[in-house]
Amino acid sequence: MISVRGVTKHFGDLTAVENLDLEVGRGEIVGFLGPNGAGKTTAMRMLTGLLEPDQGGIYYDGKLISEDLNAAKRKVGYLPESNPLYIDMLVVEFLEYATSLREMSPKDARSGISDAVDETGISEVFRPIAELSKGYRQRVGLAAAILHRPEILVLDEPAEGLDPNQRVDIRNLVSNLGQERTVLLSSHVMQEVEATCKRILIINRGKLIADGSVSDLLKAGKRRSEYTVEIAGDRVVEKLSVLPGVDAHSVEEVNGRTRMTLSVLGDEELRPVIFELAQNANWILWELHKNQISLESLFRELTDEEEISE
Fold first, then answer.
1. How many Å apart are CA 86 and CA 137, to the nearest integer?
2. What is the CATH number of the domain that holds 288?
3. Which helix or strand (DSSP H or E) is residue 42 part of?
4. Bridge partners, residue 202, by sequence
5. Are 148 and 203 members of one domain?
6. For residue 158, is it within any domain?
7. Is the dihedral of CA 277, 279, 284, 289 positive or negative?
8. Residue 295 CA: distances (Å) to CA of 192, 201, 234, 292
């Protein structure tokens, strides 16, 4: 169990994390989301003991980690966004080096490397790290993070820069790793979070603004309805943008047609309005449908509202 109580962190005049409260239960895979500069990485570094809060406390199983930081660090594995690797080393040399940094006994190091290699699927990789694909480098970083069999795994953008096939591989790997560990996962790829995590935390400007299961957050997020339209005609963007309460975004030109996304507060039905407008303006209506609420649109709505409210 991870407990974060009233945690605040300042860097000069900048408040990176402000009065953060959250709990993550044993065995949960939790998505930790936020726009750039929201305080995610700072919060993760405090969770792993790399940074000390200015106020508040972080607890593992009810014990304040600052009371015995070395013991707390033995409970956690961390894969930072940069995934620092010594690329001139062979994979096994790097993992052996990682066990020495953790001061693992020779016996524990051998078994830890063996188990981590099996879990991350890198048993056939004997080349220098410099020769590995980005996907395999991420696997090596994950292997180094679990060598000491941590109870908690903190992953900062583990699928960053990967192609779609590699993303699926890392998603499956994280799901498997989370069967026996608590996992806190940061990502900007909403599809990965939605497919991997049972629960979502959203942070913005250092504050926690949403916490719940994916399904509960999506249900609660139905404050806006979203539509996709594709129309051939004159002044499409101008006329649709001035409809009462409507926001227009994602505008693009496709084969001489205007394709755009419209959103409106509440459950107001826009399709009859758009259809009538198209008839009166002599537009050709190629596409008109109401979108299902997505985690990405909910994230955008929540973080945009937070910025507007401040």
1. 11
2. 3.30.70.260
3. helix 40-47
4. 33, 210
5. yes
6. yes
7. positive
8. 11, 12, 33, 10
- DSSP, residue by residue, 54-119: SEEEEEETTEEGGGSHHHHHTTEEEE-TT----TTSBHHHHHHHHHHHTT--HHHHHHHHHHHHHH
Please indicate, yes or no, if residue 214 is contained in any of the structural domains: yes
- Which range marks the domain in which residue 243 is found? 223-292
Quick one: 31 and 175 in the same domain?
yes
Helices (H), 161-290: 164-177, 190-196, 214-220, 236-241, 271-280
Three-state secondary structure call for residue 243: coil
Residue 248 exposed, middle or buried by CB count within 10 Å (0-12, 13-18, 19+): middle
Binned at pLDDT 50, 70 and 90, residue 222 comes out as low
Residue 119 carries which side chain, given as an amino acid letter? E
pTM to 2 decimal places:
0.77
pLDDT tens by residue, 277-290:
999 999 999 999 98
Sheet holding 55-60, edge to edge: 14-24, 2-11, 55-60, 63-64
Task: Provide the β-strand partners of residue 60.
Answer: 2, 63
Look at residues 198, 219, 240 and tell me which one is the last residue of a structural domain: 219
Whether the pLDDT of residue 175 is over 90: the answer is no
Token pair of 40 as six digits: 């995610």
Q: Are residues 152 and 247 in the same domain?
A: no
Q: Is there a single domain that holds both residue 104 and residue 76?
A: yes
Residue 180 above 70 pLDDT?
yes
Contacts of 200 (CB under 8 A, 6+ apart): 30, 31, 33, 193, 210, 211, 212, 213, 214, 217, 295
Same structural domain, 261 and 283: yes
Token output for 238: 């101008």
Q: Summarize pLDDT for 52-85 with one digit per residue, the tens.
A: 999 999 999 999 999 999 999 999 999 998 899 9
Q: 307: pLDDT confidence band, cut at 50, 70 and 90?
A: very low
Q: How many structural domains is the chain composed of? A: 2
